[in-house]
Specification:
Layout: E1 6-10, E2 16-19, E3 22-25, E4 29-37, E5 46-54, E6 59-66, E7 74-76, E8 81-88, E9 97-105, E10 110-114, E11 117-120, E12 129-132, E13 138-145, E14 150-160, E15 163-174, H1 176-187, H2 192-205, H3 208-223, H4 228-239, H5 244-255, H6 260-271, H7 276-286, H8 292-303, H9 308-319, H10 324-332
Parallel strand pairs: 7-15
Antiparallel strand pairs: 1-4, 2-3, 4-5, 6-8, 8-13, 9-10, 9-12, 9-14, 10-11, 14-15
Length: 333
């Protein structure tokens, strides 16, 4: 060649452009590039052209907006929100029928919008919508309504045969009951721990008296160094009207892994001012499906310091309806 610079020019500027030997594709179609080199004493002007077919990779964008069309990442559970898809089909998919799926997942559940409502699913297989993919961009409304409180990953996908394309968006939906309760507690000068506990309890019960009693008990338990499991059980018992003696005893047993039946029997005995030895023996008997008469007699004997054998014989006699004197005599044999 002439050793003069080679200049690249696009002859299809609507499809592609060239700058500093970098080609930019702007639209679908045939992109034609012309290369020219000026002549010198030994060579004439040189011109060469080349073309390439440009196909669109498409656009697949999920949007979550409020009722005014403003993009959002947070909403209340009473707010109407709109989920839509902006979509331009890839060149190779134009004219094909695509099936669209819409799913909203939290840490604990996967929901899919189908047949006009959100349903909990293991694997979302039901289509939210189907559409023949046009050449032009489309906006496909997928859902308009409310979502329950939770941190969601909303995603939509379309499928043509084995081909699957997905788009996602993160959305935090806050309970209005929680927000109002939290704000009310903070306005009263309550601590952060109290406010969050009270608000959480309100979302579960929607009862101010329950939530107040729960929050007071929970904060007191955690302040005393109790773990979350103990504090939750203790606070629940207090909020449902149990005495402090009962709630303390019940929570202590649940916190170490005892069953509800065991903890209930133990706490019942403690509330009656029975010693720990009695309460433990009584709970053991009750969770062994013994009658209350048996459990009471068995626990009484154990609390007196009698042997387990004595206590069993005595309790069996009492359960059979024998008198106190007779049961004591049988147990002493």
């Amino acid at each position: 060649g002439s050793n003069n610079p080679i200049v690249l020019t696009s002859t299809t500027a609507d499809i592609c452009t060239v700058q500093n030997k970098t080609v930019t594709f702007n639209a679908e179609g045939n992109c034609t590039i012309e290369a020219t080199q000026n002549a010198n004493e030994a060579f004439v002007n040189g011109i060469a052209t080349g073309s390439i077919s440009v196909k669109s990779a498409g656009v697949f964008s999920l949007s979550v907006t409020d009722k005014n069309g403003k993009a959002i990442t947070q909403a209340m559970d009473v707010d109407t929100l709109n989920i839509g898809l902006t979509f331009k089909a890839p060149t190779d998919d134009i004219g094909k029928t695509a099936t669209f799926y819409l799913t909203a997942s939290t840490d604990t559940a996967k929901l899919m919008f189908a047949n006009g409502k959100w349903v909990t699913v293991t694997n979302p297989l039901q289509a939210a919508a189907s559409s023949v993919l046009p050449k032009d961009a489309i906006v496909l409304p997928l859902y308009s309504g409310t979502l329950g409180a939770g941190k969601y990953t909303v995603y939509v996908k379309y499928q043509i045969g084995d081909k699957v394309v997905e788009a996602t968006s993160v959305l935090n939906v806050i309970s209005k009951v929680y927000a109002d309760a939290y704000a009310a507690a903070k306005a009263e000068g309550k601590s952060e721990r109290y406010a969050t506990t009270y608000a959480t309890a309100m979302t579960k019960s929607n009862s101010n008296s329950y939530a107040t009693a729960y929050a007071i008990a929970y904060v007191a338990a955690t302040f005393a160094g109790r773990g979350d499991r103990y504090a939750n059980v203790y606070a629940t018992a207090k909020a449902t009207g149990k005495s402090d003696a009962y709630a303390t005893a019940y929570a202590a047993k649940i916190a170490i892994g005892k069953s509800d039946a065991y903890a209930t029997a133990y706490a019942d005995a403690i509330e009656k001012k029975k010693p720990d030895t009695y309460a433990t023996a009584y709970a053991d008997a009750k969770t062994s499906r013994k009658s209350d008469a048996y459990a009471t007699a068995f626990a009484t004997a154990i609390a007196e310091g009698k042997s387990k054998g004595y206590a069993i014989a005595y309790a069996n006699a009492i359960a059979r309806g024998e008198s106190e004197a007779s049961a004591r005599a049988v147990a002493g044999l």
